[in-house]
Amino acid sequence: MTDELSLQDRVTLVTGAGSGIGRATALLFARRGARVAVCDIRGDAADAVATEIVDAGGCAIGIRADAANEADVKAMIQQTLTAFGRLDCAFNNAGTNGPWTEIHDLELAEWNRLMDANLTTTFLCMKHELRQMLAQGGGVIVNCASGAAHVPAPGLPHYTAAKHGVHGLTKCAAADYAARNIRVNSVCPGTTDTHLVRTFIGDDPERSAMLNATCPMGRLGRPDEIAQAVVWMCSDAASYISGLSMLVDGASVNR
Length: 255
Prior knowledge:
By secondary structure, this protein is α/β, with parallel strands linked by helices. It has one domain: Rossmann fold, CATH 3.40.50. It has 8 helices and 7 strands, in the order βαβαβαβαβαβαααβ. It has helices at 20-31, 43-55, 70-84, 108-136, 157-177, 195-201, 205-213, 223-234, and strands at residues 11-14, 35-40, 59-64, 89-92, 139-144, 182-189, 245-248. Strands 3-2-1-4-5-6-7 form a 7-stranded parallel beta sheet, sandwiched between helices. The longest helix has 29 residues, at 108-136.
């Protein structure tokens, strides 16, 4: 590992870190030498991942936080500062999907739920992360968008709109804060082998084959493959990169 890829002693924060892509990213941050604030709406899941890092010789704390609640987000940042003194990198990964529907059947409550879970979470985390990074003189933020930030996800108009919003927030922040030593990028995972996707597939081989067929590589992405992209964007190897929307999807959106 080159020095440019090292995150030794940097303080990183990951939301939605109790499982899937968030967990894989938190673990990789720790392996690269970072101190990690592992944040999740499920406090037990956050604590479990933090314990996993500590047991492997790393440095981490678990934080229970609802990233759609501003008071929780402010407390999350403060807990990170109390434990580690600063915030160098943040991966805003908290989010969820919803049931397939068309716009004319979409209930306002479901629209609001997906917007809160995917877009409001990103906005609130960025707001308070940026305040801290401005105070300390710099930092790096990576937001979790989606292939749906570039092309529509059929039957998921609310999810598509929310991820387009994450894409727009990322671009705006990259431009607004570049001169103040803060880089902001997004990662756009393709369909990834997470608990959420496994729950959708269940024991149905046809569903599994359908999802695999959506990717030219013929398989789902792995959480650690997404994590590699996130951690690279937070490293000095990506020091001149801001405003990037990186597709990590096996060429799915390229079809």
